[in-house]
Amino acid sequence: MSDGGDAHQLWASVMATLAGDLRIPPSVRGFLDLVEPQGAMGSVLYLDVPNDLTRDMIEQRLRIPVTEAIVDNAVDITSFKIVVNPELELGAALDETPEVATPYVQHEVISAPTDAMRPVAGQRVESRLNPKYVFDNFVIGGSNRFAHAAALAVAEAPAKAYNPLFIYGDSGLGKTHLLHAIGHYAENMYPGIRVRYVSSEEFTNDFINSIANNQGQAFQARYREVDVLLIDDIQFLQGKESTQEAFFHTFNTLHDHDKQVVITSDVAPKHLTGFEARMVSRFEWGLITDVTAPELETRIAILRKKAQAERMDAPDDILEQIAERVTTNIRELEGTLIRVTAFASLNRLPVTMDLAQTVLKDLFAQSSEVVIGPSDIITHTAGYFQLTEEDLYGSSRSQTVALARQIAMYLCREMTSLSLPKIGQLFGNRDHTTVMYANKKIEKLMKEKRSVYTQVTELTARIKQAPAR
Ligand SMILES: Nc1ncnc2c1ncn2[C@@H]1O[C@H](COP(=O)(O)OP(=O)(O)OP(=O)(O)O)[C@@H](O)[C@H]1O
């Protein structure tokens, strides 16, 4: 490999070229700052990055501009390869520059900082957006057309179109996806705009902590000094009077100052129970729209998009089979596709109709009528791994316990409608980012390790066959 010095020089010129490239959205530009060039071998430039998220963002969103910039600046290098080097993450976490540490210290809920958004005088700007949820990969169909159009209108003209925008619908139908997409779009459209995404559970916890720590002012500033507040799953505030009161004031302040509020919920405002009438009437000030279960064609299109994005090789007739079986929840739809492709990749088999049918038969053999609760999952997982339930809730980091815990978290996400923070709470008050990490890790391990695939599949069957209660 050529030495790192050359690579550093080349990378500096590449970055200079990219600085003027208007195709790069501000929300992903910050990831380029995390690259550490290592050297070149043959025609390939090797770049280290601290984590999977940075690799994915660069590979998926920036491959073309980066390749072109390399070709423009190097004589004989025509492509690049990214290697994840977690040591960089450690180094960077110690780094004092907060803006560089932000995207990866906080895992993937936070978008990379853009130049325009760089914090001033130590103030941190966190939009907390998941880079995976953008309008580009949101499939539009009859079930969500109106919600999508309203979301786009709000993202294009925050506080001008509809305020608040209230989106409701059952679990797993794209409400969170739309919220994040609004945030990304507004950030790209208006550099420097302050966007904040928060789940209602986090809002509640944040509020309670602020009281406990006498940090009321900082709490207020966090939620009131924003241009767009995206608040997810507002039904969680039901019956929580003080938190509702805090939200009421936040809402009024933002609305009075022409700041956009977007709210999601599992039911329409008028069906929210445990909310004060004045709160509900505010939810009805702007535009209310729902998302419903997608029709077959939309389900197929969603699977196609997912397969493309994850570079899964799954023929159309198989996507159709899956779409016909899973009808009411898009999270489950995606989960089923992952099961099929994971099985194929483990067995080094192509994804054929026979293979898909075997996997689907296993998955759907059991009645889907029973409603699975987290306690069913936890009891079965503990029994399966010969552990106690306390082991799963507790803090042991032994490999078996940690894997069993991550599988249980994954199954809670797949088989119940619990949100990430709720699952985190169940498992010994862990942060929702831990649940997100567990999910991602098990999805990945299922493709790579037969033992994990088998464990997850057997456990799913046991849980469905005989819920623990
Ligand atoms: N129209 C769509 N196009 C592409 N992907 C979609 C669409 N709708 C939902 N998804 C995907 O389905 C999964 C579940 O969606 P999301 O988390 O937004 O649901 P939700 O309605 O917020 O559910 P919950 O109420 O449980 O939080 C996500 O991975 C999301 O990207």
UniProtKB/TrEMBL annotation:
* Keyword hit for DNA-binding: yes
Quaternary assembly: Oligomerizes as a right-handed, spiral filament on DNA at oriC.
Compartment list: Cytoplasm
The UniProt annotation puts the region (Domain I, interacts with DnaA modulators) at 1-96
Q: Which residues form the AAA+ ATPase domain?
A: 161-306
The record, for PANTHER family, names: CHROMOSOMAL REPLICATION INITIATOR PROTEIN DNAA
Q: Which family does it belong to?
A: Belongs to the DnaA family.
Task: Tell me the segments the record calls region Domain III, AAA+ region.
Answer: 128-344
The record's SUPFAM superfamilies line, in alphabetical order, gives: P-loop containing nucleoside triphosphate hydrolases, TrpR-like
GO CC annotations, alphabetized: cytoplasm; plasma membrane
Q: Which stretches of sequence are listed as region Domain IV, binds dsDNA?
A: 345-469
A GO BP entry? DNA replication initiation
Q: Pfam families given for it? A: Bac_DnaA, Bac_DnaA_C
The record's listing under SMART domains reads:
AAA, Bac_DnaA_C
Q: Which InterPro entries match?
A: AAA+_ATPase, Chromosome_initiator_DnaA, Chromosome_initiator_DnaA-like, Chromosome_initiator_DnaA_CS, DnaA_C, DnaA_dom, P-loop_NTPase, Trp_repressor/repl_initiator
What are the residue boundaries of the Chromosomal replication initiator DnaA C-terminal domain, all occurrences included?
A: 373-442
Q: GO molecular function of the protein, one example?
A: ATP binding
The primary site where this protein sits is: cytoplasm
Sorted alphabetically, the keyword list is: ATP-binding, Cytoplasm, DNA replication, DNA-binding, Lipid-binding, Nucleotide-binding
Where in the sequence is the signal peptide annotated?
none
User: Which domain of life, per UniProt?
Assistant: Bacteria
Query: From which source organism is this entry?
Result: Agrococcus jejuensis
Binding residue positions for ATP: G172, G174, K175, T176
Name of the protein described by the UniProt record: Chromosomal replication initiator protein DnaA
Q: What is known of its domains?
A: Domain I is involved in oligomerization and binding regulators, domain II is flexibile and of varying length in different bacteria, domain III forms the AAA+ region, while domain IV binds dsDNA.
General function of this protein: Plays an essential role in the initiation and regulation of chromosomal replication. ATP-DnaA binds to the origin of replication (oriC) to initiate formation of the DNA replication initiation complex once per cell cycle. Binds the DnaA box (a 9 base pair repeat at the origin) and separates the double-stranded (ds)DNA. Forms a right-handed helical filament on oriC DNA; dsDNA binds to the exterior of the filament while single-stranded (ss)DNA is stabiized in the filament's interior.
